[in-house]
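Troubleshooting log. The previous structure file for this entry was overwritten by mistake, so regenerating from the original sequence record. Sequence copied from the archived sheet and checked twice against the printout by T.R.
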Amino acid sequence: MKTQAAILVETGQPVVVADIEIPALKPGQVLVEIAYSGACGTQVMEIRGRKGKDAWVPHCLGHEATGTVLEAGAGVTKVKAGDKVVLSWIKGTGIEAGGAVYDWDGRKVNAGGVTTFQRHAVVSENRLTLLPASLTMETAVLLGCAAPTGMGAVFNVTQLKPGESVAIFGTGGIGLNACIGAAFGGGMPIIAVDPNPLRREMALAHGATHAIDPTGNDVIAEIKKIVPQGVDVAIEATGVPSVMDQAVNATRQQGGRAVVIGNAQAGQTLVLNPGVFNQGKSLMGTWGGDSVPDRDYIRFARLLGSDRFPARDLLSKPYRLEDINSAIDDLEAGRVGRPLIDMSLQ
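Regenerated output below.
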C-alpha cells in the first residue's frame, strides 16, 4: 500500500511531497489514517536546519495529529481497528516499537515513533491515545503537542495556584495553550509578551489579561508596572536565550518560578546572573509539560472543549498536504497560531 507524505530530503530546502510504500507492521506498531495534522516550531527548526546536523534524512516529519486506526500489529492492546486516536510525540502507555522505514522508489525514508505529515502513518503504540469524546478531530490535534506542553507547563511543572500572577513569553500554539491553562488555573493577572500583534490579540482572546509588545520596550519594567514585585510564574515559549533570561528576571524573589519550554537553536547558550538563585527564584525545564497522555489528555480535552475560549481559533484555516511548505512558512512568519493540515483536501 502506498501513501503520500512530506519528506525532508535536505535541511534548508523545502520538503518534498511524494508517494511512499508503507512497510509491514512490526510488533507494537499501528497503521493510522491521518485526518488532521498540526505543525510545530520544532518542524520549522528541523526543516531549516536549526537543530544541527540531521543524520536521518531523508525522513518523514510531524508529531501531532488525529486519525483512525486501520490495523494494529502484534502485541498491541491499547487500540484496535476503527478507533479514533490522537497521535503525539509524548510517550504514553503501550509498546515502544521504534520507527518505520518507508520505501520511496527504492530509496529508504526514515521515520520516528510518530510522524504525521502524511495521509497514512506507521506509529508506535505508545504514541497513541484514544480521542476524547469532548473534542472534534480538528481541535483534538492540539492534544498532540501544543496543549500538553503549554497547559502541562502550567499545571504539572509550575503547579500554578489560584491568584498567582503569570507572564507568558511567546504566544504561538504552545504559549496560547499556556494562556488557557493559566486562566483555568486561576492565574491573575496573565501577561502575554509577544512582538506579533496577531498573537497578542489571540492571547487576549484566550485567557491573557494584559499583552506587552517587547519591541522597543523594557519588558521587565512593563511587567512590573502590572505586578510590581514580579510575577509568581513565568513561562518561556520562544526558544530565544535572551528571552529565557527575561523570564527568570520577570519573576518575584523568594518563590518565583520560571519554566523554559522553547528549543534554542543548535550552538546557542544561555548566560544567567547567578544572583537570581540567591534571590530564591527557580528555573525549570520540561519535556512536553511533564504531561502523561493517559492521565492528562482527557483533562486538557475538557478545557479545550469548554465554551470559555474559542479553542478552534488556535488553529489556522485548513491547508492541503501539498501546501505543507506554505504552512511552515506561515507558521515561521507568525501569520497563524498553529497550522492545520487537512488530509481530506486534494
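The chain has two domains: 2-138+315-342, 146-289. Archived copy saved in two places this time.
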